[in-house]
UniProtKB/TrEMBL annotation:
<feature type="transmembrane region" description="Helical">
    <location>
        <begin position="418"/>
        <end position="435"/>
    </location>
</feature>
<keyword id="KW-0812">Transmembrane</keyword>
<feature type="transmembrane region" description="Helical">
    <location>
        <begin position="137"/>
        <end position="164"/>
    </location>
</feature>
<feature type="transmembrane region" description="Helical">
    <location>
        <begin position="230"/>
        <end position="251"/>
    </location>
</feature>
<feature type="transmembrane region" description="Helical">
    <location>
        <begin position="338"/>
        <end position="356"/>
    </location>
</feature>
<keyword id="KW-1133">Transmembrane helix</keyword>
<feature type="transmembrane region" description="Helical">
    <location>
        <begin position="60"/>
        <end position="82"/>
    </location>
</feature>
<feature type="region of interest" description="Disordered">
    <location>
        <begin position="266"/>
        <end position="286"/>
    </location>
</feature>
<feature type="transmembrane region" description="Helical">
    <location>
        <begin position="103"/>
        <end position="131"/>
    </location>
</feature>
<feature type="transmembrane region" description="Helical">
    <location>
        <begin position="384"/>
        <end position="406"/>
    </location>
</feature>
<feature type="transmembrane region" description="Helical">
    <location>
        <begin position="493"/>
        <end position="511"/>
    </location>
</feature>
<protein>
    <submittedName>
        <fullName>Transporter</fullName>
    </submittedName>
</protein>
<feature type="transmembrane region" description="Helical">
    <location>
        <begin position="456"/>
        <end position="481"/>
    </location>
</feature>
<feature type="transmembrane region" description="Helical">
    <location>
        <begin position="31"/>
        <end position="54"/>
    </location>
</feature>
<feature type="transmembrane region" description="Helical">
    <location>
        <begin position="176"/>
        <end position="195"/>
    </location>
</feature>
<keyword id="KW-0472">Membrane</keyword>
<feature type="transmembrane region" description="Helical">
    <location>
        <begin position="314"/>
        <end position="332"/>
    </location>
</feature>
Length: 532
């Protein structure tokens, strides 16, 4: 065996060892991995059968080209959002080894073919060529197109990850994962919107897009199979050449990046002296508008966490995005209701849950300042006010925007009143749940619950949401009654002040009832949020 072959074999065995040792850590991790494998294989099987069913359809090539383009985009962006998903994505772990970039590229490329993602992509590629291939020449071209497209996807992911590894491994770079919630939320709604449009207008809507993407690697590989089926061998060769050229360029870019990473110093080997006064911070801007005393201090701390802490920021970005996307997209599709705007209040109200767990182990500094029920009440009140500072205008904006899109201004007062009542109920239930069911949020990785506390987190969130729904039931019942009653239309405007007042009352009572429990259970809360 050559030296390069030996390096490849070692790196592939390393990938398998990392996977095996990771599964040995806990039964829960093994169960989660097995479950994910089963789900992915099931989706891959259904996708494979669906693509085979497209065989003979006039628009089969358009569908397969678009699917492969979306898959390639996923391979490009996933390493940015989930850099810790594969330990071998970080080539800086190998800088101390006497390895040249070219053999290392081959070894890492081979290791990248081991996993669920490549298997899923291979299933899509095989199903795609079966859907579009007609004749012996097309199937011969597919023998080259399938592995070529798979290698382009894998090399694209590796090249992107290597080019951004310094950013992804830094503290600020981890904030990039915050965008994942927004991208997934927006992407899911865009896919839903696109599917509905296709359902009404037919697959022909994809043809103009596919005519462009068929010349973009790696989708051009599937285009080559379709071109060979039509007897256009020159076009098929050109499209295969595009994919092959893209693979060569990606491998060269990856190799140059590896050379730079393995030979250039980084921040850990250079001493950086920060200019005097550069790191000093003074309170200003919004802080000047906050109340004095502990309430203002707690509000400022909560807002700083929402802006600086990656996980808190991720939760906020996801809630803000989904809270707007669900009502707006449903309104644009013509199937929405103004009551969908309450989704924004519900998503933002979730941020009140597990307030102390969001502080992680730093909560002990807060606990040291709580010596009475009054201290606990002011602490909870400051956190609730910080959340209201963002959620109250945002929920109002979403209701108004949804009303404008639906041209349903008459229902605006009752929808806004119901939204404000729901927000108050969520904050009240969240304050009580934070004191009764606190749990730890790991600082590293992408887990939001420490091992062994999943059941507690489920009870805290879903139990609290059920409690919030029950608290909001009187306003919901009043809304239904006024809409059902023949003469109730004249009084629906009262739902706005009633909902706002009821929501404020719920927040006040929720904080008052949660404060004594918080003060009494400080040691247990501190122990719970410091785990993991």
């Amino acid at each position: 065996m050559t030296v390069e072959g030996s390096v490849t074999a070692v790196v592939v065995r390393l990938k398998l060892s990392l996977l095996r040792n990771g599964l040995r850590q806990s039964a829960g991790r093994r169960a989660a991995y097995v479950f994910s494998v089963v789900v992915v294989l099931l989706i891959a099987a259904l996708q494979f059968l669906g693509l085979i069913a497209l065989r003979g359809n006039t628009h089969a090539a358009s569908v397969t080209v678009l699917l492969l383009a979306v898959m390639a985009l996923g391979w490009a962006v996933m390493p940015l959002f989930f850099p810790s998903g594969d330990e071998t994505l970080d080539p800086t772990r190998l800088v101390m080894l006497p390895l040249r970039p070219r053999p290392l590229v081959r070894a890492l490329l081979a290791a990248s073919l081991v996993g669920i993602g490549p298997l899923f992509t291979l299933s899509l590629l095989v199903g795609s060529v079966i859907a579009v291939a007609r004749g012996g020449a097309a199937f011969v071209v597919s023998l080259v197109a399938v592995p070529l497209a798979l290698l382009v996807c894998v090399a694209l992911a590796r090249a992107v990850a290597a080019a951004n590894i310094r950013l992804l491994s830094s503290r600020k770079g981890r904030d990039l994962a915050v965008l994942s919630g927004l991208v997934i939320a927006v992407g899911a709604q865009l896919v839903n919107f696109g599917v509905q449009q296709i359902g009404t207008a037919g697959l022909g809507r994809l043809d103009p897009v596919a005519e462009v993407l068929v010349w973009v690697p790696p989708a051009s590989a599937v285009g080559a199979v379709d071109a060979a089926s039509a007897g256009s061998y020159g076009i098929a060769f050109a499209q295969l050449a595009l994919s092959a050229g893209a693979l060569v360029l990606l491998l060269r870019s990856w190799s140059r990046t590896l050379t730079r990473l393995m030979t250039s110093p980084d921040g850990s080997t250079l001493q950086a002296a920060e200019p005097a006064g550069k790191g000093e911070r003074t309170s200003g801007g919004l802080a000047r508008l906050l109340p004095d005393g502990r309430t203002g201090t707690v509000m400022e701390r909560s807002l700083r966490y929402a802006w600086r802490d990656p996980k808190t920021k991720a939760a906020w970005v996801t809630s803000l995005a989904i809270g707007l996307i669900v009502p707006v997209f449903n309104a644009l599709q013509g199937t929405g209701s103004i009551y969908f705007a309450c989704f924004a209040a519900g998503m933002l109200g979730i941020q009140m849950y597990n307030q102390f767990g969001q502080d992680t182990s730093a909560f002990w500094m807060v606990a040291m300042t709580i010596s009475s029920t009054r201290d606990a009440y002011v602490e909870l009140r400051g956190r609730a006010l910080a959340l209201l500072l963002i959620s109250l205008p945002y929920a109002t904006l979403v209701v108004v925007l949804t009303s404008a899109l639906l041209n349903d201004w008459a229902t605006l007062p009752e929808a806004l009143g119901l939204s404000l009542a729901l927000l108050g109920a969520m904050l009240a239930a969240g304050a009580w749940s934070s004191a009764r069911f606190p749990y730890s949020i790991p600082q590293e990785g992408y887990k939001n619950v420490a091992p062994g506390q999943s059941g507690l987190a489920t009870v805290a969130i879903f139990g609290g949401m059920v409690g919030a729904a029950l608290l909001c039931a009187p306003v919901i019942a009043l809304t239904i009654w006024l809409n059902v009653d023949p003469g109730g239309d004249r009084w629906t405007w009262l739902l706005l002040p009633v909902g706002a007042g009821y929501g404020a009352l719920l927040i006040f009572l929720g904080l008052r009832l949660s404060a004594p429990r918080t003060a009494r259970r400080l040691p247990e809360i501190l122990a719970a949020v410091s785990k993991g």
